Amino acid sequence: DGRAIAASDVFRAGSGWEDFLTQRSIAEITRQFAEYDYAPPARDVRETATKPHLWLVGENGLTILFPPYSFGGPHVLGGAEVAIPWADLRPYLTPGAPAPIGTGA
Fold it and tell me: Are 26 and 45 in contact (CB under 8 A)?
């Protein structure tokens, strides 16, 4: 409908999606920067992961963009992206979520 996507367009309220995105993102960012022995602070990751303007809604899943500094790391680390398949997000999705979101029924 031409408006910016809202979290409620994608995720069910009270489903715990915020915690899931945060934990999944921490694990992936930690993996991406393992050579630096870096694990991002949960507070910083949650703040970024739950902002819909940093989401890319794709056919295969949701990609969360983490610009430099957004996950508590030094600028030298740059940014990060965390891709999560729709199948993994299924328990948190709202019925009737906008395309191209699918649950692979």
Answer: yes
Residue 68 pLDDT > 80, yes or no? Answer: yes
Residues shown for the chain: 105
Specify the residue for token string 């910083």: 44
Cα-based distances in Å from 32 to 1, 40, 44, 68, 73 = 36, 11, 16, 14, 12
Return the exposure string of 16-31: e unless at least 16 CB atoms fall within 10 Å of the residue's CB, then b: ebeebbbebbbebbbe
Query: Is 0.90 topped by the overall pTM?
Result: no
- Half-sphere exposure in the Cβ direction for 78 (13 Å, CA): 4
